[in-house]
Amino acid sequence: MWIVAALLTMFCFGISNMLFKITSGKGVSKVHLQFIFYLVSFLIMLVYGVVAEFSPFNALTIILGATIGILNANGNIQMSKAFEKGPASITSPLISTNTIIPLLSAALIFHEHITLLQWIGIIVMLSSAAIIQYVPSNNSQIQIDYKPWLYRILLSIASFGILGVLMKTSSNLHIDSVNILVSMYGGGAVYLFINSFILKEKWQRTEFAIGSTIGCISVVGYSSYFFALKTGVASIVFPIVSLSCLVVVLGSCLLFKEKLRNYQIIGILTAVAGIVLTKI
User: Fold this and answer.
1) What is the distance between the alpha carbons of residues 236 and 242, in angstroms, rounded to a whole number?
2) What is the pLDDT of residues 221-236, one digit of tens each?
């Protein structure tokens, strides 16, 4: 079941990233969009927690959850800004390489046992992301504002990478995922609310609609993510989730007419092969 949960997380994150891409360059505030998404997610998890009866909260849970929320918010903001500087079909796969950070922590810090075939599957999945993002140097059709684009990508990779390590830490500490998610969305919402006052951007109706949609998707994605980390092998879960870039690549081809090249098709096929190998 944890493989299914990881795949569901992959699709949820991919769809959310596509929605961020769709709003890029259209005057929609990235901070407002995320604030609505965090607020909606917080309310959903709060209601669920009240109905299901919360486990006792403590300072560690709140601090850890809030930190994850802030890192996720910052990672999404940087990713949205990177989308404005380069094509989604390249940007998303590059950001997906953040999985190397929690992957190494799972193997080195948390001492997870991984078989040879599973290691091969992990390497195949990471290689697939590299194949998909490859751009020939003579490709004049792709417009990239290189320095700010790379800067945003690196910030996003750092945020999502550290976030993954903290999520695995919370799982190892056996902290209730509902408590973590409430703290995560609550902490992130406060962070974004403060940012909205500082930036003083104009609010738009579309921000409420799209933000609410992303919020609902995020609850499903992160709930599945925590389940997969608690019941499965994190060193396999992280690479599978990183393949959310495939959803963005395929979505970009359909919605933005970004052409899928032969080597990208190979990357998609090898990614699927990698998932199969990790399950053997």
Assistant:
1) 10
2) 999 998 998 888 887 7
